[in-house]
Amino acid sequence: MDLLNAFVTLSNFVLIPAIAYGSQLALGALGVTLIYGILRFSNFAHGDTMAFGTMMTVLFTWLFQAWGVSLGPLPTALLALPFGILGCMALLLFTDRVVYKFYRAQKAKPVILVIVSLGVMFIMNGLVRFIIGPDDQRFADGERFIVSVGTFKEMTGLEEGLAIKTTQGITLITAMIVVAALFWFLNRTRTGKSMRAYSDNEDLALLSGINPERVVMITWLIVAALATVAGVLYGLDKSFKPFTYFQLLLPIFASAIVGGLGSPLGAIAGGFTIAFSEVMVTYAWKKVAGYALPESMAPDGLAQLLSTDYKFAVSFVILLIVLLFRPTGLFAGKSV
Amino acid sequence: MSDNPYKDGRGNKDASIANPKGTGTMSAHPGSGAAKNTGTAFLIGDSMTGGYGNGPDILHDCTVAVDAGEIAVIVGPNGAGKSTAMKAVFGMLNVRQGSVRLDGEDITDLSPQDRVAKGMGFVPQTSNIFTSLTVEENLEMGAFIRRDDFRDTMAQIYDLFPILKEKRRQAAGELSGGQRQQVAVGRALMTRPKVLMLDEPTAGVSPIVMDELFDRIIEVARTGIPILMVEQNARQALEIADKGYVLVQGANAFTGTGKELLADPEVRKSFLGG
Fold this sequence. Notes:
Chain A has helices at about 5-40, 45-65, 75-105, 110-130, 150-155, 165-190, 190-200, 200-205, 210-235, 240-260, 265-280, 285-290, 310-325, and strands spanning about 145, 165. By secondary structure, chain A is mainly α. In chain A, helix 3 (about 75-105) packs antiparallel against helix 9. Chain A is globular and about 70 Å long. The mean pLDDT of chain A is about 90. Chain B is an alpha/beta fold. Chain B has helices at about 80-90, 110-120, 135-140, 150-160, 160-165, 175-190, 205-220, 235-240, 260-265, 265-270, and strands at about 40-50, 60-65, 70-75, 95-100, 105, 120-125, 195-200, 225-230, 245-250, 250-255. The longest helix of chain B has 16 residues, at about 205-220.
């Protein structure tokens, strides 16, 4: 038995990747949950919004790289991120003006808006593929590791190594900053409180003189920022491929619903719940078990519950369980 | 021309029997016999006829008004259009005829939000608070249209409703029914309205809480804000009312001071249970 090595292996293959993935999902789910709370529909175009914002960032990254601008050890994408966010904001405001605003004026039922967002999704999907192509794009540069396996082994003298990728570190720090800023905005500023008030009781918000169009506009701006940050972090960590982002919609929705739609805190909890379950269920535990258990009990097989191809299924099993036993989600959002 | 048999000359035109010249056709008493004395009204929904959307008319020539510094109460049986009259005054109904005036100014065509900006405060009957916001945030949202410093107004409201100060960091949805109503009234008072409209403020609260709420409402009225309110508890409401309107089927049935209505045998028989 070697618990220390077991823990290091667990951290390396499960904890650290899951925390990074969870942060990315949480940021995505925050965007979904905000739109659900304020505009009152599930935005199916969210995955492709993320793809668009990321694409803008990738294009700016390439531009900066061509100019020879870089951030040293940090990825150039961080420098391009604000421009990507601005591009995504422009797209969302344009979409709202030409599409959603019409349906809002008709007081369309939320289910109609859901289908509208489906149409928007296909258009954004096509737009992104048209501009950057359907292929994988890698745009991460700078230092690759904060701690690499080699240095970790040298430092500690342990058998097992632990690697922390720069992108994982950046993901966690950026996510914390973004979430802190969002909660500060929602809970402390006049505009943020008016957004929560509007989400809570639309009629009373109107009677209090809160301008719905302004609330909606600010929501789109925040969602654009959240979606772009989430997309860029995911792209840095893995790679940017439009289809992957379209698929990300599934775990993101699962996170938002598991946490409780409309509850920002729930979106974060849901993101980590989904991420940890996906990683843990699809991880081959043979090595960890080999260290943690007495030799006689060490498993012969891989001790992997599901192949990684099934990782989306994991999100949906959790989603089903939550919907069956706690339909309002972990943090009592709106019932779905 | 009229049903009056005494006016029927039966076609007789013989001037030697009766002189038809000089009998005037104009007669006195043009009134409805139900004068409401609304000349001094601060807020008045005057002869309103209208309904929801394009639906049928619910209000028929209905008048409700409140004078400066007074409490006016709208009572009546279920489905009489009490709340509808209130909504019509606040611009949430299609008023097809009649007008709404605030301090002499015609506001019939203003949206509810604009009426709030003009100085009307409205407390709806249901969902009248932001349940997920704290009590203090509810009050802040009430003052959303104010750009000046509203801390003194908030202090006044905490003086008026001490329990709110105690619970100001709690989510408003966690409060009891009576406390929620106090939050709702407090929220409406944050704009420093010139007139306050309450739609059944005591709906669904216990009798003890109801008495307390009525006391609070009187206190608000004493600060000089005229109050127009709809009430189900007709007797108690009329006791504190300077003026009462009994509506039946969307029309004025009886109007008078609270005492007059309480004393009126017909009102007692039909609405106050004898």
